[in-house]
Amino acid sequence: MKTIMCIEEPILILFALFLGMITGSFLNVVAWRVPRGESIIHPSSRCTSCGVLIKWYDNIPVLSWFILRGRCRYCGEQFSFRYALVELVTGLLFAGIVMKYGAGILFFRDAVFVSLLICVILTDIDHWIILDSVSIGGAIVGIVFSILPGGIGILRSISTAAGAFLLFFLIRQISEHILKQKPGYTIAPEGHEDETDEFQGGMGWGDIKLAAMIGAFLGPSATVVALFIAFLTGALTGIGAIIAGRNRRIPIPFGPFLAFGAAVSLFIGQEIWSLYLSIGLSY
Ligand SMILES: [Zn+2]
Questions:
Q1: Is the same domain home to 166 and 79?
Q2: Are 88 and 163 in the same domain?
Q3: Last residue of a domain, which of 103, 118, 145?
Q4: How far away, in angstroms, is 132 Cα from ligand 1 center?
Q5: What is the spatial distance between Cα 24 and Cα 260, in angstroms, rounded to a whole number?
Q6: For residue 155, what are the domain limits?
């Protein structure tokens, strides 16, 4: 039995890697098209510069980018390395999930979860939005997965989602209250000038709904770890950006930090939580 596992495992990991890279390619399409109101199925991928249909052999995740050196075969338009990077990272995350949880329903759950998180990072960086279909839709999907065998259970899922939602709502209310006393503190990014309110408190509705989605998937302890990592990395980045001379009135989107914290916690959240408890108990 053990030997069979040994033969199967590398194939399984390779399969997960490839599945992840294809998924990453799809996430690139979603993050580009959905905020622009375009269909994700139709039409097929075209060069954003010359409009020529991209052939399947030029659309192989990661590989095609390197073969064509990131350029369109027809017009030579340079495509960002980010596309290949998203495909590669998604592939590696899928491979990591299959190594941690094997190939069962939990793989499927966590693959969906990291895909949603990557979508959050892309749309929040590019457009300052977290799609409702990703946050609210994702929360519902997370709750459904909690019922399935090996899941965290529906009560833990719903209560963590509600708890995270309330916590973030509270943060929004408090920060809004404080920042109201210095109006116009932050500048809304381009294209969002009519929603200055969203950028006053730093905690937009998108972040609040995203926190609920993360809670629905991770359950209480891993969510606490995820939020801790998010606030820590967010604060450090904010401080770093100010030191680097960034205009402190231009906000930094928080969604990517939440998504990053959730992804880290997905893999080692329980370990960090146990470590925290053991340190706490030894005092
Ligand atoms: Zn082109």
A1: no
A2: no
A3: 103
A4: 32
A5: 16
A6: 131-283
Question: What is the CA(160)–ligand 1 centre distance, in A?
Answer: 47
How far does residue 60's CA lie from ligand 1's centre (Å)?
16
Please give the chain's pLDDT, 283 residues, in tens: 444 445 578 899 999 999 999 999 999 999 999 999 888 887 788 888 898 988 888 889 999 999 999 999 999 999 899 999 999 999 999 999 999 888 889 999 999 999 999 999 999 999 989 999 999 999 999 999 999 999 999 999 999 999 999 999 999 888 888 877 776 666 777 777 666 666 655 678 999 999 999 999 999 999 999 999 999 999 999 899 889 888 777 778 999 999 999 999 999 998 999 998 888 766 6
For residues 155 and 283, state if they share a domain.
yes
Structural domain contains residue 225: yes
Ligand 1 centroid, distance to 187 Cα (angstroms)? 35
Q: 72 CB contacts (<8 Å, ≥6 apart)? A: 47, 49, 50, 52, 79
CA distance 110 to 93: 9
Distance CA 204, CA 229 (A): 19
C-alpha 59 to ligand 1 mean position (Å): 13
Q: Are residues 184 and 264 in the same domain?
A: yes
- The answer to whether position 62 is within a domain reads yes
Using CA atoms, how far residue 181 sits from 68, 172, 186, 200, in Å, is: 53, 15, 12, 11
pTM for this model (two decimals)? 0.91
**48 C-alpha to ligand 1 centroid (Å):** 7
Distance 117 CA to ligand 1 centre (A): 30
Cα 231 to averaged position of ligand 1 atoms, centre (Å):
41
- Looking at the structure of the chain, the number of domains it has is 2
- 152 and 280, same domain (yes or no): yes
Ligand 1 centre to CA of 49 (Å) is: 5
